[in-house]
Automatic annotation (TrEMBL), chain A:
Organism this protein belongs to: Thermomicrobium roseum
Superkingdom field: Bacteria
Name listed for the protein in its UniProt record: Uncharacterized protein
Automatic annotation (TrEMBL), chain B:
Lineage: Bacteria, Pseudomonadati, Thermomicrobiota, Thermomicrobia, Thermomicrobiales
Protein name: Amidase
PANTHER family, alphabetized: GLUTAMYL-TRNA(GLN) AMIDOTRANSFERASE SUBUNIT A, MITOCHONDRIAL (PTHR11895:SF7), TRANSAMIDASE (PTHR11895)
Pfam families xref list: Amidase
GO molecular function list: catalytic activity
Amino acid sequence: MSDELDVEVEQRLALVLARFPGWFDEDEQARLRAQIRELVEASRKLRAFPLTNADEPDFLFQVGTRQ
Amino acid sequence: MTQDELAHRSLRELAVLLRRRETSPVELAELALRRLERIGKRLNAVVTLTAERALDEARRAEAELAAGIDRGPLHGIPYGAKDLLAAAGYPTTWGAAPLRQQHFPEDATAIARLREAGAVLVAKLATVELAGGMGYEQPNASFTGPGINPWNMDAWSGGSSTGPAAAVAADLVPFALGTETWGSIIVPASYCGVTGLRPTYGRVSRFGAMTLSWTLDKIGPLARSADDCALVLAAVAGPDPRDPATIPQPWSDAPVSEQKQGFRIGVLETGLEFAQPEVVANFRAALAVLSEFATLEPIALPDRPYGEVIRIVLTAEAASAFEELVASGATRTLTAPEDRVGGIAGLTIPAVDYLRAQRIRRQLREELASLLAPYDAIVAPSTLVVASPLTSRFDEYAGPARRTPLSAASNLAGLPAISVPNGFGERGLPTGMQFVGRAGDESTLLALARSYQARTDWHRHRPPLAFS
């Protein structure tokens, strides 16, 4: 679990570093890594929450305009 | 009565004095401007004094009242607005150094409605930069400096509505507008010992307010009492075609009597084991007061991943809302080092993770609505600790008491809440108690808070700084 989590964190970090090359020093990369880890941990907890195909997101796509 | 004594009066008292011509809108505006300059700046509570506009609005109010034109209880009353809300003619900085010169051509709807109600904007008040959306971890996260607590100047005011809470607590303005996405009205209201009302999602138009999260942002008043909050909400609430999320029905303050209501309150004690002893003692004492006019029953929140859901929703929406700002490099010059990278981590959240969070959110919202249905409100401490020292990181000071499940759950569900002061804790700092109500039912929350405040005087306490 921890290894998989580390892999996902590093993959996401690599995406960021590729998009913003040269932006971050070592301290900032460490901070980014910690923030991404929190998000990955949260997402993994949510993936364990049971949902069915019928469970819609909590917002509605509306066709037309509201006046 | 001295001018400074006017600073400590309630909205209704000021309204009476104005109509008796014992004071005037110009006198009140000048008084607020002086106090904001003299005391507010010591608290890092002020971003911009709007003196020219204030005096224009005050003179107009004065002329109208003299001519018998009465716009209601806020006519001629000064107020401040969190600097996330646009006000024509003045910068709207969002608390962020790179946006010090940002201007918008028209007022936010909430400010325009207060102008229609005759209220007088005297200041744009401090906020945590970008309303805390970059993940700040300590108080020094705004170009105006850390928000300072009027009760203890070595303590934080709470965030992200730092200026509104401190300014109301020190009697610099009778009320202020704040915003909440996840705790930003309830927490600073509790930390500063004022009354803060977070309306139902969609009750107040967000047009002209900075977006942090489209599905979580709310605008609401911080004031000295529930009664004052009700007067302000009545002025700013209601549908707005420029905010498609606004609730179509208008809102007006319909007082609910204790006898008619027969209040039934669910008491939530989750997390009290992490609370500071004074917070627990003050909560228990407040429950004894509530039991004089309400039936109290223990209630428990289902064990759900509220914190994780709100973190993913908020972070993903903030990353999208600020994507251009982040990509421009502007956030690299924010005040808090952690904020300089904060908007970037959110860019990595996969769309399916965001959608999963929103799918779970629907279940949590429906579950919470069922839980609340038999009750008029859930009551719990507003925060489990008092305001942290200015020098502490939040996690270091509060540990597991930093956030409560109820805060995440009720914000996710868009439910209204009101925080009222209920005593004092360590270092002389206020504690607070919150009522969380059913969606759309601010009136019952206000009735509960009014009944509590009719039996207690915690909301009348003022820090010595307010008399300096």
